[in-house]
Amino acid sequence: MDTIFAKRRRRFLARMQEGVAVFRSAPVCRRNGDVDHPYRQDSDFHYLTGFEEPGAYAVFEKSRDRRRFVLFVEPEDPEQDVWTGRKVGVDGAVRDYGADEAFPNREFLDRLPDLLLNRPRLYLAFGRDPDFEREVLGRVETLKSEARKGHHGPWEVVDPRVILWDMRLRKTPAEVASLERACEVTMAGFEAAMRAIRPGMREWEVAAVLEFEFRRRGASRVSFETICAAGANAATLHYVANRSRMGAGDLVLMDAGAEVDFLAADITRTVPVSGRFTEPGRTVYSWVLRAQEAAIATVRPGATYREVHEAGLRVLCEGLREMGVVKGETREIMESGAYQPFFMHRIGHWLGADVHDVGPYFRGGESIRLEPGMVLTVEPGLYFSDANPAAPEWARGIGVRIEDDVLVTRDGRRVLTARLPKAVEDVERFMAAGSWWEGVRPASIGRVRRTTSR
Ligand SMILES: [Mn+2]
Description:
The chain is an alpha+beta fold. It has 14 helices and 21 strands. It folds into 2 domains: about 160 residues, Creatine Amidinohydrolase, Chain A, domain 1; about 270 residues, Creatinase/methionine aminopeptidase superfamily (Creatine Amidinohydrolase, Alpha-Beta Complex), CATH 3.90.230. Strands 6-5-4-1-7-8 form a 6-stranded mixed sheet, with helices on both faces. The protein has a 3-stranded antiparallel sheet with strand order 9-12-13. It is globular. The two termini are about 20 Å apart. Bound molecules: manganese (II) ion. The site of manganese (II) ion has 5 residues, from loops.
């Protein structure tokens, strides 16, 4: 069974040196009382196994003549299954997840010494899961105390993320296809929201429309908490309260993403609540859009992350100067950091299984060079908070960010979220062309014949 996960395991094992790699699934987190937070598998664990249940361990063995993948999973338990549904179980781990061998999870610590016995190297993420680390290293220490029996444990610990995160940074065609689906679903959510926004609505209603569309189009969950921030709320970068009423004169910033196949999309659009841009918001918006377009235009193989950042920053600084917010030459504003009260984040981030995906931005002090298969967001913004004394009176209460997801291709770039309107006229035309409230109907009716559990 040559799944996407089997291919990743092969590549991971090919890059491992002789030794054993151990991973634990993400913990279940209590929310309150008897209620847990929705479970979402750890991205690294899922990347290698495809396994979505908690309480699991994955072990990878590599020696000169042997490569093995072992899963330890929550065993099937008819009594427990009445409450939580059927689990994959030990047999399922071999049958459906490609494990060479599988055991009940309670046997992990007892079987670990045998797995580690006389291996030169242990691959274990350190600093992430202290309990797991202590348990595993405890078993290593025990092995070493048995030297007289000819036993030793691994002498070297390597963080497997040095391999994994490098793999995750470059997306395979199959991963790009999933990411494209996540982007499609997310764009559909934004289209719905843009046609649902009305003055007087609460921000949470817009968030609900976005997430309703994500879910009914098959997203597993949101990539991160949805941000709907009208007016001055947009100046709080990770505003998730979403509880204000939106005024007719406000811009509303929506930053949201759907997750599909454990790949996250991440889009931001800032649109006028009334459906028509008015001054001074329109001018601020136009500068952010120009900055975003300039930054996107630099994305190509060989360009550095720094170049993308600076291309956007240059236009933002030019805008701040033209609008009279900051005095001086554009270059001076860039170098002095005088723009920072209004643009305080970087131009974007890697995108993948985690919305702020793993992978280095610098290597040996040098900004990393883009390669085909890398995916980054490009999301400049300008923020004029009510509480910012440096912000001119006229601009206070305006926050604009525009974000698209960009794949580096062999000959340049492909904007995966390009269909979603962002030019002033396109946004206005799109918002005027219909009401989401009249068009809403279940997406799945006619397709589903009967309820299935999978
Ligand atoms: Mn982002």
